[in-house]
């Protein structure tokens, strides 16, 4: 894989009141998120460290790659009819200097190999050709 650069965003806002909810979401384990997690945990995806159900400000994101400043959202039925909320949330995350990558939960369940290849391509495209992290 091509070397990729760090986009580490320091001192991200953190709402401590969401800690229990974040933990509960990790335990509950939405199927598509668990499937994705099994592909990326413990550095299995190009030795990149992923956090699951990470609190950023007043939001809990599905996955977060600290070294890249990358939020990965797996969109399922919980996002239906919440386009305005999702856009406000994404605008907030982007305002912090983060990048947001969205994946459909159906694609995770039914096209996982291509999902992972597309994520790899996105990372190379967005974070390639600078200080290597891998």
What keyword list fits this structure?
single chain; 5 helices; 4-stranded mixed beta sheet; 134 residues; 4 strands; alpha+beta; Endonuclease, Chain A; disordered C terminus
Characterise the protein shown here.
- The protein is α+β, with helices and mostly antiparallel strands and 134 residues long.
- The protein has one domain: Endonuclease, Chain A, CATH 3.40.960.10.
- It has 5 helices and 4 strands.
- The chain has a 4-stranded mixed β-sheet, with helices on both faces.
- Strand 1 and strand 2 form a beta hairpin.
- It starts with 18 loop residues before the first helix and ends in a 7-residue tail after the last helix.
- This is DUF559 domain-containing protein.
- InterPro entries: DUF559, Endonuclease_DUF559_bact, Restrct_endonuc-II-like.
Q: Give, in order, the helices and strands.
A: HHEEEHEHH
The structure class reads: alpha+beta
CATH class: Alpha Beta
**Tell me about the biggest sheet?**
4 strands, mixed
CATH topology: Endonuclease, Chain A
Number of strands: 4
The N- to C-terminal Cα distance equals 9 Å
Please compute the radius of gyration using only Cα atoms: 14 Å
| Beta-strand content estimate | 15-25%
Shape: globular
Counted up, domains total 1
CATH architecture: 3-Layer(aba) Sandwich
Summed over residues and divided by their number, the pLDDT gives a mean of: 89
Stretches where pLDDT falls below 50 for ≥5 residues? 130-134
């Amino acid at each position: 894989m091509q070397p990729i650069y760090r986009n580490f965003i320091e001192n991200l806002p953190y709402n401590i009141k969401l800690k229990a909810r974040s933990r509960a979401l990790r335990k509950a384990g939405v199927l598509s998120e668990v499937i994705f997690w099994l592909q990326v945990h413990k550095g299995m995806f190009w030795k990149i460290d992923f956090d699951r159900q990470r609190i950023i400000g007043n939001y809990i994101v599905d996955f977060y790659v600290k070294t890249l400043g990358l939020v990965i959202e797996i969109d399922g039925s919980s996002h239906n009819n919440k386009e305005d909320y999702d856009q406000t949330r994404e605008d907030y995350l982007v305002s912090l200097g983060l990048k947001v990558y969205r994946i459909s939960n159906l694609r995770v369940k039914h096209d996982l190999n291509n999902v992972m290849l597309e994520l790899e391509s996105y990372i190379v495209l967005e974070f390639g050709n600078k200080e290597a992290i891998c």
